[in-house]
Amino acid sequence: MSLYHWKKLSSEVKAENPWWTYRIDHFLGPKGQEITYHYMDDPGAVVIVGLTAQGKILLNKEYRPLFDEEQIEFPCGRIDEGQSPIQAARVEFGQEAGFTAHVFKEVGKFAISNGRSNARAHVFLASDLVEANEIQPDVTEEFEHFEMSPQEIDASIASGAIIDGITISAWTIAKPHILALLDQENHRG
Fold this sequence. Notes:
Shape: globular
Order of helices and strands: EEEEEEEHEEEHH
Strand order of the largest sheet: 7-4-9-8
Number of strands: 10
Distance between the termini: 51 Å
Number of helices: 3
Helix content: 10-25%
Structural class: alpha+beta
């Protein structure tokens, strides 16, 4: 069975900012009704799961003003106009983790909030890490860097210590790849 694909009748920009555009689109719906849809038109984001040589995963703690709390997250950020996802991943990993990597591999992607935004997040696995030279975070960002094992990440999600949806979604995608790499390393060692 194929679902009815809404027909776009018109689109208008209500507001713009440096990060996304607030749009209102008008559609013809499945029963012939006109539907007004408000959403964020967003270029998307990258999430980087960095694996250290010791088998740990790099994470950040960052203050999130909308929640008035510090949250544990993977390094992530938006894809700027004209940037490819891999270019954005390299920049964001340097800014937010202080590392670059010899290996950046896209392992999947997901819709960030498919009822509110058209943004997709591209999930990258970064390995064979090297400290980045003189890369500074954005002026609005401040991070506490730390490492966790895969088991510690699972426990932190289960306990509610990690609540960031992008981090949880990215971990779901990246975890099998991380465990496979760690298994390979264990068999070599």
